[in-house]
Specification:
The complex is a heterodimer. By secondary structure, chain A is mainly alpha-helical. Chain A has one domain. Chain A is 89% helix and 0% strand. Chain A is built from ten helices and no strands. In chain A, helix 4 runs antiparallel to helix 5 and helix 5 packs antiparallel against helix 10. The longest helix of chain A is centred in the N-terminal third of the chain and has 41 residues. Chain B is of the alpha/beta class. Chain B has one domain: 3-Layer(aba) Sandwich (Rossmann fold). Chain B is built from eleven helices and ten strands. In chain B, the strands form two sheets. In chain B, strands 6-7-8-3-9-10 form a six-stranded mixed sheet, with helices on both faces. A four-stranded antiparallel sheet of chain B has the order 2-1-4-5, with helices on both faces. The chains are: A mainly alpha, B alpha/beta. At the A-B interface, helix 6 of A face helix 3, strand 6 and helix 4 of B.
Chain lengths: 270, 299
Amino acid sequence: MANKARALMDGLLDPLARLGHSGLKALAGLGRAHLLLLGILGGTGELLRRPRLLLAQVFNVGVLSVLIVGVSGFFVGMVLGLQGYYVLSQFGAKESLGVMVAASLVRELGPVVTALLVAGRAGSALTAEIGLMKATEQLSGLEMMAVDPVRRILTPRFFGGLISMPLLAALFSAVGVLGGYFVGVGLLGVDDGAFFGQMQAKIDFREDVVNGVIKSLVFGVVVTWIALFQGYDATPTSEGVSRATTRAVVHSALAVLAIDFVLTALMFGK
Amino acid sequence: MGGRQSTKFPDGAPAGGAGDAVSDPVTESATGSDCLVRIRGLSFSRGAQVIFDQVDLDIRRGAVTAVMGPSGTGKTTLLKLISGQLRPDAGSIEVDGEPVETLGRSALYQLRRRMGMLFQSGALLTDLNVFDNVAYPLREHTKLNPAMVRKLVLLKLEAVGLRGARDLMPSALSGGMARRVALARAIALDPMMILYDEPFTGQDPISMGVLVTLIRQLNDASGLTSIVVSHDVCETASIADYIYVISNGQVMAQGTPAEIAAERSAWVRQFMDGLPDGPVHFQYPAPSLADDLLVRKVA
């Protein structure tokens, strides 16, 4: 009887214990991530003295993502042009297509989709690179050469991502507007004067553009931070690096979408 | 446990100087200035697994000291403890008089500038070519002009026989060449000590011969102190001045290669002679084969 009672208690308590263990593990990971971020930021001064390291990472994260961001922006702009035309034409407001395309891109889709694309292309590459450097003892090798791998390897990549993100988001939005123009004006016959005229009149620099840039800067921090942390914290095996890369993309995507909601509520939720 | 065998240094003299050939290791080396690394009461665990349990160990200046033992006994962990990459649970580790386990980051980095480490994989930076890999510590820690860096790098590469490979990328190097480049990088700042982590693993006979010779020659020519962690018994014993054999978190035997060769302990004989069975059983602990085969209910 006593054994049965004990088994019953264990059955009830085990899931609770596992839940607690998972919670503690997640909190420990969050703590390590924040310590890593402090370490990364601690290398800022050193990075300013060696700007070449930063330029190389702006190239790796930013320039190498231009193609996918540009092509995606064009298609997203075309879809917006098409969908917007059919909705707006029902209300006789198809001349406002330019505003709708530009506002959607600058406020939301530009920063968000760019962040998701960068997480998939550059973020996963960063995680895999750092994870493999750990697995092949390159990070330990730097430590043994009295070189701090966080400041030497991670800091330039972090700021490379941070600088690249708003530039890529701007590219996405600009190309997206061209995509919307191509469909709306070129294919569906919207007046091109109205398309750009209303866009110029209704898109506010402070309200729309600056808020979009702020969003993409925040996403730049989040995506690059998650990617670097997952790589640095990866189990140094091929399976560990593979799992870390997957986690980096999934966590980045979820974080971007969740933070976007919060930022949108703060910026536009009047 | 480290003191269970008598500690004698390569020339047969005790660590502290004149005296009997066999003496108490702790008291002798504690006062000896020729002891570069002094480990006392080292304990280290990973979870429930005890890696080291109250280990004492001395590394003499200018000598090649081998640390041998079966895989998974904590040889690489020992190097990481000595270099401050890991902190011990208990005990002290002094390198050149500095207590590694209590050093702050800056002091530890200062100490590491006087150490080199050859990793099992070489740990070359894969985005840099051979020349830039060897030049890396010089560029990071000195203000030498590029012409001087070039000369030094070429000299280091010449020492390991790879001056002609300066423009190759690490992916184009064989395993043996990668370790030689890593060795050139490890000696770039003219360290006082080099830690070798399994330098002979996976090497063909020629590469192994080259590495064996290089380790000994570099040690003698540059006045280094070398700690070679390995389970390649013959190669390591051929260049070592002193050998520690560790297992189960303790020092099982220590002495000169001749003394280790004469050691009669069944465990040491099994390890040194590569016997498949003995105190270390061939079979991993398991219920009897009959019990296992007669189990009716298979999960």
